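Chapter summary example.
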Amino acid sequence: MDPNTLSYKNLVVWQKSLDFANAIIDQVENLDTKRHHYRLVEQMEAAATSIPMNIAEGKGRYSNKELAHFMIIARGSLYEVMTLLEIFKKRNWITEESFNQLEKEAIEITKMINSFNKSLSIRKTPAK
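The structure predicted for these 128 residues follows.
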């Protein structure tokens, strides 16, 4: 692959995590709460956008070990988002339907990250 291209854009897991981050931002813009919970909203947006950003950063590194490390960080950010969504659901700030849809997407992304990392442990070639 040409090292001058943005190869992370070809990763389906990056594409799905980008869509997921966008869906999270849409969700927090429409929270059903009278108060503005800026800290929680900012944390949610930061964690959600961190998922595709870490995938991209890992893909930009020179080794599979580094790529796998950033994929694990992305998965951690995904878990952080889901924990915040659980809190939002418990407080009735988001609907059960919205939560279930986002959880379904998160599970799919988690499986993709896990499979991707498993494939990296098999390969011993550079990440590019």
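To summarize the output: Residues 7-27+35-122 form a domain with the de novo design (two linked rop proteins) fold (CATH 1.20.1440.60).
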